[in-house]
Records
---
Amino acid sequence: MNSKLLLISLLFTLLYSKHEDGASAEKFVFPKWKSMNLLNKELLNSIDHNSFVDIYVNDIAKSAYINKNNKLPEGSIILKPLYPERKRENLARLVIMMKMKDGYDSENENWWYGVYDKTGTNGWFEGKIDSCINCHEHMWSTDYLFSESVINKINTQ
């Protein structure tokens, strides 16, 4: 994959994303994302993100994600750094899912989505992002996660 395709992917996210939480939405930062639990040894090909990714999870999410539990607990964070090529260089952005309190977005299992810069401190898009929801909603049986296919890839590494 080249940087041109990555740019197109980012532009798609910019054009088709929508922040519905309004100006008063709580802001989150993830400056210590590299200290989270890295699940994979080798980069995974993410066709939907048009990138290669790592999968990081916080301690709250780790057991439930690895064991493919139906529902991840509130406070679970799944973070993916996106790279344009199959090497951990030229990090383009971070995509993040965080399980919120019941009632945040009940129709979509209370997942918050974020698209951040590589530092994890500048959110370009946050909240109920339509393009993220539209992609993940067909995975309702696994709590809106692609965890089963990802875990199968990780287990073969």
---
Amino acid sequence: GGSYSEEESGLAKIALQWILNEAKVAGLKIDVGQYEKIVLDLKNDGVAGPDAAGKLHKSLTSFWWIGEIIPKTRYDYETGLREWYIPFGAPRRIPEGAFIHQSVLERMARSDYRPKALPDKYEAEPLVENISSRST
């Protein structure tokens, strides 16, 4: 994905917010003013803020399919072996008990969105906001 208009970047802002918050925990210095402007849109200047209900783009189009026909290896948790496979656009495996970001659960609560790879058992990972001056 990428190269979408700012108005359609609400879902991407969730990922960016998570990445920057994790980077801050790891010691990266973040410009709070720019973070609040670009990620959170606290200045209300038309920049899209994080939005779990934002437009979902289909990224697997045209040339991206080339990567889906190249054989890859993956670890099979059931057999304990590495195996070769060709993805053909199949959803990636998410193991039982994985951490799923709260934004996925928010999106599921608001719409008919149901990720194909979502395991039956998972842990919800809340967003921990530690950059903004509005942090609690």
---
Amino acid sequence: FFSFVSFLFFFFFPLLSQLFPFYFPSLNLPFLKFKTRNMSSCDVQEFNKVTSEQKEFISLLDSGNPFMLDGAMGTSLYSRGYFINRAFDEANCTCPDKVFAVHEEHIASGADVIETNTFSANRCMLSKYGAADQLEAINRQGVKIARKAINESRRQVFLAGSIGPTGEAIGYMNDSTVETITKAFEEQIHILIDEGCDLLIFETFRHLQEMKICLKVARKCFPGGIIAQMSFEENGNLADGTPPCRVAELLHEWGANAVGPNCDGPAAIYDIAVKMVCKKVAPVVACPNAGHPRLLDSRMLYMATPEYFCVYGKRMLKAGVRGVGGCCGTTGDHLEMLTGSIRMLAAGVDHGELSDDAPDSPKRTERGCAGSVVANINKCEKTLEPVPASERSNFGAKVMRVWEERLKGGTQRKAPTSREDFVVSVEVNPAPGLDVTKRVEEARKLKAAGVDVINIADGPRAAVRVSNTALGLAMQRELGTEVILHVCCRDRNLLGLQSDILGYHVLGLTNLVIITGDPPKMGDYPKATAVFDLDSVSLLQLINGLNRGVDPAGKVSSGQTRFFLATGAEPGAVDYERELKRLRQKVAAGAQLIMTQPVYDIAVANKFLDDIQDLHVPVLLGLCPLVSARNAEFLHNEVPGMQIPDPIRERMKKAGRGPEAVAEGVKIAKEMLNGLQDRVVGCYIMPQLGKFAAAIDILADLGYGAPVENGDAKKENGLC
């Protein structure tokens, strides 16, 4: 009996250990090893077979659609009790359930690409932990665990084989060092390929020489996509002084399909990634840390919030970065925050070239709801002639009159002399809570001061407030003033949007500004889902169809709407060419007025106005009077789409705080208006922190604030 038990222990259980190391990692005994093929030599014919998943990932890179990578493996393992005095990669064999749980969390948070837990699983790094003999098992298990998590998620997620630097002294590299590094990369890369990775990601490399070796090894035997990411110094360059633009060129030249920075704070990664995007040599994929770590109670913690991480994630995506993920300190919470931004920008797909003279015939790839809406509307041949823009609302009538009389279709410039030949919209948003009385009274004072229309955002800052429809209707009924409602695509599907739009028309709310909308990332309910069935271009096309008597299904309706349609634009966009292209698509889709983001640089605004002059569409200049230095820094650093030049921020710092700072903010806004008023039909003012008096102060030179009827102006205005 004893002999039989001994036979089972020494032969049967080790056999299970070799066949199923995922379940029997502790039984991986050294005296029983199966002979495996030599992975240090590459069989090119065998490895160069391209899988369907590898092709699909390359297609994703080519598509232009944004995607999200996963977060930090080490951070998540540490939070689950895995100690940092061991190689995190060993967890693949010692506690695979924890590694699996991290992958599962990242996929559930929305990751489109997850990385194997093999960042340091090369022979050089594992030797430092005495684990080099487990190299093959660690790498194979890393792929198997991640693949199991993907399979159980039942959605398409790409698996990236993660490879980090060897830790060798690159600065003193000789032939022997090159050989050691080459063999280390060959060994690990061949195992990851053999296990079926969809792509490879080389991350946190600090030296170009080492990255070049790694890419050279991979390109000999891997036909799939490769992401190559470098870690930069505080000055924004590599340790050897190479700037980001040149790094992007070299990585692409050496065989990387995508390039980018990783492992630094969100702000630093943003600056580097934007420089790489501007070079336009390859798609850029960036993975910032959660922030900068701080030592608290003997633990290194990342203090930046997921909201802060998401702000920069969205900025990067809007600047043209294709993929964003997380590095050190990032968790599923960070990824969840970012998911809404990914979906929002994915909704803004390329609509092709839309002809300005044929807005109802866009050349567009049909995709989801947006594509089918466009296709259905365009199939309908029986359409009504739209109501002229000047007859759709009083606001629309004044915009078109001023455009024709003062700007002559953009061929002549004439500065306004009074409020009769200038259009003003001031933003008054719903306050938290149920009482709208205060906001209605603020609108009453603005109307008395001569403001033409009240602008009301749709769920500003993705927070829960009274709907802009309810507030707008209250203002319109009680004050007799017109409002212009923001309509965003975030919260409602196609049916809900169509129903609300028809409702606006019935209620007489016919001025709309169409935007894609912010994801619900910074409000009271960050886990709320974003819909984005349509983007701003598609929604403009839908409403333009309703204005012609055609519903989204392509059917002729019993009547037609008469909406005056505006859209937004960002003169200082980082990806300026994309912004112009999108704006042209919006105008071709039916936009009749452009409302810009706040402008703080006259030269930037003039270039923008020059570049869109051929559109022959009136423009409202966005003005956001600053109220303090802190307010300026917040808008510049935390609000996507806002760029406030250093000289302006410096002026606000010198102004200090209180009334002096508010006055300086008004002065800056006046300078912008005075320098550009002969090129725009009017302005769109966004007062900060309830400083509505600042809006009228900006316009004082044009006669705003004077009594509309007999009476004392000061009593009439009473602005606070």
---
Amino acid sequence: MIASSLSFWGSVKSFSFFNRLYLLRFKTSSFASFSPFCFLFFCASAVAFLFFDSENYNDIF
């Protein structure tokens, strides 16, 4: 459970980093242009969070 929370906070920090990179690259701060990237990233982080959760690890395999 500790490793899953660490991976979750790591994904949150990397999300804020990629958020800044995305906004710098396209030079826009409108949420409408950012929402597809945001949605895909949060889906991937949620799947990774469930996958690396120690309680759900035995249920997957």
